[in-house]
Amino acid sequence: MVSQGLDQHFVVARFLSNVSQLCTRAFSFLFFSSVANALFCFFLAVYFSPSQRLTRALRE
């Protein structure tokens, strides 16, 4: 009975560690991809709107 309880405990601990690893991976992936998307959109906005105004101002 004791060994069976220990086996169940190790199974639960292993399962929880796997779940936590998956959660941290998913969270880090979502976090980094959202940060990358935000930076990409920011650079696109910066590149398309003010740079055209700057080039127009420099040409005039």
Ends: how far apart? 87 Å
Percent strand equals under 5%
How much helix is in the residues?
over 70%
Label the overall shape. rod-shaped
Radius of gyration: 25 Å
Sheet with the most strands, sense and barrel status: none
- Average per-residue pLDDT, rounded, comes to 83
What is the number of strand segments? 0
Tally the helices: what do you get? Answer: 1
- What is the element string, with H for helices and E for strands? H
Features:
97% helix, mainly alpha, transmembrane, single chain, transmembrane helix, membrane, Transmembrane protein, 60 residues, rod-shaped
Q: What would you say about this model in short?
A:
This protein is mostly helical.
